[in-house]
Amino acid sequence: MTALILGLLLFFSTHSARIFAEDNRAQYITHFGLAKWKLAYSLASAIGLGLIVWGYGAVRLDPIVLWAPPLWTRHLAAVLTLPAFVLIAAAYVPGTRLRAKLGHPMVLGVQLWALAHLLANGTLADLLLFGCFLVWAIASFAAAHRRDRAQRVVRGEGALDWDAVAAGVGVGAWFVFARHLHGVLFGVVPFG
């Protein structure tokens, strides 16, 4: 459990700089440069993510069960992760209406992903992992919208054609992950 907690602290301390320490982040970038910030951010995030994966895998061998979710929540989780993948894809496909309207579709996708997994899993490790991601994504979305308002960000309309591309990429990634990778990586087959 220690590795999981340390990984979560390290990963979210870097990913929460824009939520809780925007001024410190800006000072670091001004003093050391954007390239060094990105290097430090990436390194700390990668170590944190590695600890999360390792720690979560270790804790799953001897889980502390808090509640027993009904079987149907697994099916609901599989369905909820579909729009999560589409939203995450929309964050990276340029010119989508989803990004133009929502502003930050990736953190909305992370919210759906985390909520889906919280509903379908009932161990302490699941609560820590997916609960942290859900709380972070909610805080990140709120902070990003505050920044957008303060900076008077105006987005273009976006195009439905690009939404179709994002939907295709998201659905394809969701299918491959759910059908082939989730079982191999995590030992749980969503449609099994």
Please bin the fraction of helical residues: over 70%
Beta-strand residue fraction? under 5%
- Could you say which structural class the secondary elements and strand pairing correspond to? mainly alpha
| Distance between the first and last residues' Cα | 28 Å
Low-pLDDT stretches = none
Compressed to H and E, one letter per element, the order equals: HHHHHHHHH
Give me the Rg, rounded. 18 Å
The overall pLDDT, averaged over residues, is: 92
> Can you summarize the main beta sheet?
none
Whole-number tally of structural domains? 2
> Which shape, going by the Cα principal axes?
globular
Counted beta strands? 0
Alpha plus pi helix count:
9
Domain NnrU: 4-190
Keywords: Membrane, Transmembrane, Transmembrane helix
InterPro entries: NnrU_dom (IPR009915)
Transmembrane segments: 37-59, 71-93, 113-138, 159-177
Describe this structure in words.
- The protein has helices at about 1-15, 15-20, 20-30, 35-60, 70-90, 95-100, 105-120, 125-150, 160-185.
- It is about 80% helix and about 0% strand.
- With about 190 residues, it is an all-alpha fold.
- It folds into two domains: about 1-60; about 65-190, no CATH class.
- The model has no long low-confidence stretch (mean pLDDT about 90).
- The longest helix is centred in the N-terminal third of the chain and has 27 residues, at about 35-60.
